[in-house]
Amino acid sequence: MSYIEELVGLLGSERVTTNPTVLEHHSHDESYHTPHLPEVVVFPQTAEEVSKIMKFANEKRIAVTPFGMGSSLEGHVIPYKGGISMDFSLMNQVLEVRPQDFLVRVQPGVTRMQLNKELKKHGLFFSVDPGADATVGGMAATNASGTTSVRYGVMRDNVRDLEVVLADGRIIRTGSMTAKSSSGYHLTGLFVGSEGTLGAFTELTLRVYGIPEATMAARASFPTVQDAVNTVVDILSAGIPVARIELVDERSIRQVNLFKETDYPESPTLFIEFHGSEQSLQHDIEFAQGIAGEHGCTQFLFETDSKARAQLWDARHNMAYAFVHKSPGKKMMVTDVCVPFSELADAIVNAREAIDRSGLDGAILGHVGDGNYHVILMIDLNDKDEVARADKLNAHLVEYALQRGGTCTGEHGVGIGKMKYQRKEHGAALDVMQSFKQVLDPNGILNPGKIFG
Amino acid sequence: MSYIEELVGLLGSERVTTNPTVLEHHSHDESYHTPHLPEVVVFPQTAEEVSKIMKFANEKRIAVTPFGMGSSLEGHVIPYKGGISMDFSLMNQVLEVRPQDFLVRVQPGVTRMQLNKELKKHGLFFSVDPGADATVGGMAATNASGTTSVRYGVMRDNVRDLEVVLADGRIIRTGSMTAKSSSGYHLTGLFVGSEGTLGAFTELTLRVYGIPEATMAARASFPTVQDAVNTVVDILSAGIPVARIELVDERSIRQVNLFKETDYPESPTLFIEFHGSEQSLQHDIEFAQGIAGEHGCTQFLFETDSKARAQLWDARHNMAYAFVHKSPGKKMMVTDVCVPFSELADAIVNAREAIDRSGLDGAILGHVGDGNYHVILMIDLNDKDEVARADKLNAHLVEYALQRGGTCTGEHGVGIGKMKYQRKEHGAALDVMQSFKQVLDPNGILNPGKIFG
């Protein structure tokens, strides 16, 4: 009897499949990394089923790769060792909303937008917004963040408790429902960002927030990237609680204008969002506008109405598409370094020079409040020279960041794309990480070939 | 040659001592737990020296217990296995202030007040305030917090990077200087709160904040604990960014009046602090006062002047003393449970009933924004019955909290006092913690007998 038949014995035939279309769907993510088929896809419905599958796979030394929505950006969910792709789409229940505790208990297959739809009924929202409608399980696995982390923190800040199934089938809880704890080692923070290499999440308790009374959006254009970043420094130093603050560089605005036939000022642009009371927003926006003016801001627009806000941010939302659309047949490679805030302006200027030197087409957008910025490159995977130039550019950006106290990945995670930088970034600490991996997954069945190679 | 003579060979005779007074100083903390002498106290000056001592102790299987200020509350620094007490008072330099990054690099022996004195020159402050003038190394080791965590987070939220010396002498860095990272396992969060059982910290990079433009303090009295807690719920739900919000119960205010001959209203009282601009504070205080009024507030006072603010909070500051002063010869036992916010009012009412039932004298104060509250008991350690009643009360409070998704310790840590509750709180996750301990400290030399027993 093949191991797949045994899996059918465990889960039933409907939730164990080798259907080619399903296998193909689980062979890739949204990145440029080479796809690889799993041997079988399973759809567990409970932690106990996940535990049974794990125990089985561990005994048989079969690779298990957890799969949410497949929206990862560094090959995280690609099952390079074949084996089992464990799809959590049937574990997609919002289990409990606790408005007074600002908490929600969910299954890992719940998506960000699904969760926010449910929370809206309670006047609450889940803050982490990586753009894609990822599952919360996947977001926790990569410690995702995005545009709102400057105000509300990253995924790790918003996961209060996890139920985790370990490689040997043990089911543990890593935290509690309290706002703080000094009891035992902080396993929650360790499992968040472990990219499926230490265990599979079967339940998450997440921190949520009250929907702000009012929201305001602004767009501000500047002569130089430094002017824009200095504006951000002054806004944050003054304690203005911006909810989002994004930078898009001049070249990227030009691409949007080409793509959308718009006439946005082709200069470094900040996209800002404010959350608060109507009264406080009035104060915040005036303050921000004043600071922007001191740094040579050439245009400052703001809107409160939901539709007008979306239009104001249109260039930001369309930036990736503007490049994708103009690059048929190419694949997107997104860099993800993060530097100390004080290094950001220089880093972005340096990145733009490096892109131009490489001869590649590339957008820059930055979660500037965090010191995190992306270079979005469109590359032809069949053009070896182009791939090599993109790799070299990526390596340059990482090297630049690491030399200045930065990290190779601010929010996308390591997957396979950032593996080669792990030793350089972490030094001897990488051995400590590997020893934890070894102790929890001695047979190496959990998402093998990721983070450590 | 004794191992102490060998240590002298490593560090020189001036920084290795068996002086009885020094040994005695390193035999206890501020808790009621039984003191125990170390065999020797060492005073390293560099990470390299710490590494040398560790390697030596690891080879000889000698216990090493890191020591900061000795202000721990659960016996953390008491060297029950004798051996080496490693005192970090000579590693007390503020190494670098990076105002634009809101970061500071410090050695572990720097104290909270020393750090704030230095930061003040840059218009910055370090937010974590556990009351005692602890060292930042000790605060990181216990994941300390205190009155300000409702706004600025706990120690773990504010440690960006650690240099750690492991049991075998390896020196690692756990993080980076960036605001966020998804690179590798989150070791920083794991080492914070590990209570000296996984390694010794030799450098910390900490998040700091701009000193607020204005500060306002308030004191509000309520008919019942529920009214006070409901006020907190509404204030926090409305997004009023209070910097501190503390509850003191009726019995405790009465004790302060007895001790200080004051006439504070003997009813549940909230002590609040607001940080912001003068304009925003005006708005915040009016809003808070309005909410308090809706919940039956009988007296609401507020002050901006620094001296007047201190006076307004006088009853809060004096509460512990009021009990200590009236209980000569007794030792303080402080409980530290934390519950989900929605459970807090009931938990405090239940705690007061349990204290009264126990026949012990006890204050209740709560970091109510976090769901964390302390019962401060004065006990005669020679009175076995009293000790037994205090233990029983503590166990009752922990049991109550754990049944409601809470934790046995919100901010003091496990040490030896909360060890007996670890299995109940963490279940199978405790085995995972122990496996990490085993892999990093196979000879069990690091602060033995803590957390796991």
From TrEMBL, chains A, B:
Q: Which residues cross the membrane?
A: none
Domain of life, per UniProt, equals Bacteria
**Gene Ontology terms for molecular function:** D-lactate dehydrogenase (cytochrome) activity; D-lactate dehydrogenase (NAD+) activity; FAD binding
**Which E.C. number(s) belong to this protein?**
1.1.2.4
Which processes are annotated in GO (biological process)?
A: lactate catabolic process
What family is reported?
A: Belongs to the FAD-binding oxidoreductase/transferase type 4 family.
- What is the recorded name of this protein? D-lactate dehydrogenase (cytochrome)
